[in-house]
Description:
Elements: E1 4-9, H1 16-30, E2 41-47, H2 56-62, E3 72-79, E4 88-92, H3 98-105, H4 114-123, E5 128-132, H5 141-153, E6 166-168, E7 171-175, E8 188-191
Antiparallel strand pairs: 1-2, 1-7, 3-4, 3-6, 4-5, 7-8
Helix pairs in contact: 3-4
Amino acid sequence: MPGSSLWLLLPASHPLSAVLPPLIQQTAARFNSPHTFIPHVTLTSEIDPSVYSSDPQAWLSSLKFPSREDVRVKLGKLESQDVFFKKLHSRVEKEGVKEAGRVARSAVDGFGEEAKAREWVEGEWMPHLSLLYHDCPKVDEKGLAEIEKFVRNAGVNLEGEGELGGWVGGRVVLVPTDKPIKEWAPIAEREL
């Protein structure tokens, strides 16, 4: 993935913090994928490292993200796409995260104007929480049903309800995603 990305992570103390990492590991093992990753919603990618290179933390802290209570992640149904990073994911309701997405996208070259960033959020962006990165065919309906049962058995609510159906607030992290996936790690973090 070119450049760097801004990810929205759940609060460290949230109950999903204990549920999602093992789910990602087990899903990767089930599909023979070598890739595991921090559970996150990608707010944007394609950030040129030159914009933050001198001080990633100061740069991230300068972004005007909405307050904690105005960022609400609501998990949705499982889906699969041909795209490597969206091979298997829970779609996230856009309404609760779109302002955070707009702020993040405004950091990408060519999207500094609010209208351009908003247009991208409304048109192109599909917030989601991935469970699988893999270079394999799209997961079919039978496979989705099996994984949905597996996810629900872990307690995750795919209707976005209750404590295991999403979260409020969280942490935004800056991740250099132009490296191999196994090297993806936050270099700056801030609480909402």
